[in-house]
Amino acid sequence: MAVGGWTAPAEAQRADENAVREAEDGFGKSVGNESIGIYASGEVRGFSATAAGNNRIEGLYFDEQGGVTDVIVRGSTVRLGLTAFGYPLPAPTGIVDMELRRVGTRPVVSVEARSGEYRGPDLVVNAAIPVSDRLGVDFGFGLFDDEYVSGASAWFRSYGGVARWRPTDGVELTGLYGRYDYGDEEQAPVIYTAGAYLPKRIERRRFFGQDWADWRGHAQNIGGIVKANLGSWQIAAGAFNSRFTRDDYYSAYFDGVDRDGNGRSFLIAGRDQVSASTSGELRVSRVFADGPRRHRLLASFRARDVEQRYGGYDLADLGAGTIGVANPVAPLDFDFAERTDDRVRQTSVAVGYELRWPKLGELNLGLTRSDYRKEVRAPGSPATVEQDRPWLWNAGLALTPNDRLTLYAATTRGLEENGVAPGAAANRGEALPALRTRQIEFGMRYAFPGSWRLTAAAFDIAKPYFEIDRRDGVFRQLGEVTHRGVEASLSGQPLAGLSLVAGAVWLDPRVTGQAVDDGRIGKKPIGRTSLLVDTSLDYRLPFLPALSLDARVTFEDRRVANAANTLYLPARTIVDVGARYRTRVSRTPVVVRAQLRNVGDVFGWRVGGGGGFTLLQGRRANLSVTADI
Length: 629
What we know:
The chain is mainly beta. It contains two helices and 37 strands. The strands form five sheets. It has a 22-stranded antiparallel β-barrel. The chain has a six-stranded mixed β-sheet with strand order 4-3-7-8-5-6. The chain is globular, with a radius of gyration of 25 Å. Mean pLDDT is 91; it is low at 1-12.
């Protein structure tokens, strides 16, 4: 049965999950615990779609505070350009749409045991139970003992379920609950060098933080969805509560690190940091047929109510130290201050129009009035209020001059949450104003004879630019950042049994404003790269169809590593290889999966906001066994 444009699969099985074979393009796809493509929720066209509030659950607006466990989420897809045309009221920097797990026609219990990265074992169990032909329940749990490249470790317990009920044809009700608890999550220090140079090479898998300075808390998501196709009327509604807590919080960093790795070690401690959001959307649409043309009018109401309590941190100076060298100290007594209360209320009322004209094209128009209010109550300071009531809009036009070619152009205006200042800033935890954003793009899609499909687009995105000001260490707006670029995806099956998905993005990020004119910062934002290429393939051997080989090759050009643009991370290529072997034990399908990631054991650094460095993942092996009982 199809509900809201989604057709239920015959069965729900973890053993069949394969990101390469399910991806429609090379822009971004996750299935289970595997991801491919040039984009993910944390980086779409150089920006974070999650931070911008562009997450969806099965097409409906969702303000994510705590991550949604894959016990209840089968995967996610990055939607942008032409792939976002079917989504009403799109947002700048794309949409990340999550797909909940779904029950098939027979009971299935999926058990997956894997070694985990750096030999941290994981166990996940899912039970998909069709209670009747109209009611299905999928529930599961996971146990994770994670190990990291820094030598830090953590444990996670994940559990939840999804229930779907079809009381009548054309109507589906979905309930979801997902939670993970975590603890003993050690925090590896972030490294800030004293000049325009990278930290010295250190040994990986050697922890040099404080093993008692752990994170502990939970993430929880609860929600419900209603979708109904009532002739020419369609109704879609979703309400969600998302929560993330850090009952114990620590952030470690080394400052002023010289070329020999010597610097000063600091530890920030906090307690009871909470982010909670209630959000949702109600969307009603009506379809009108006009000969071959299809008109759709829609009205949407979106809302979110976010409450956060953060801050009250205490800073400990642990003295001189050397990166990569353990220097344990006894647990400290911290003096925590009062926390800051931060509340955001935002509502959006929108109307939209869609025209689909077979063999000619598609037109999308949308107009939104957003009402944004943010109130911050910091200890010892009067309450501050940020308000904005912008008119936002989107427009897109796609033309199909023939059956193989589609051309399109689109523009979008958005309002995005900006969070708080990072821990390394002098104003750490300070609330930041919302951002007005804009995006224009144009592109094409061409279906070659056979299975090949090429998608390409050029885009221009502009947002206010926030970074740590070198004059006083305050995180503030220093100008405007624009991302102009070209992206492309090529997917197909060049040989029988071979699936190939490739994506590439060339990006020209630029910062403008007084801070650039004064020489306080360079013209390129920290952490951006000008070229990213991702190619994945999966090949089922014709002479041994039970066995398939897969590989992923990712190239990224050098990345800007400091605000002055005098330091770059070098370009690097990462190669992953793997294999799947499908068999049966009695009547139970079993898949054995082996992976070797970063085959060349490339050493490198990652850079974050403010120019802090953390280790790149090294070579690691993963072995898993999945059975659908």
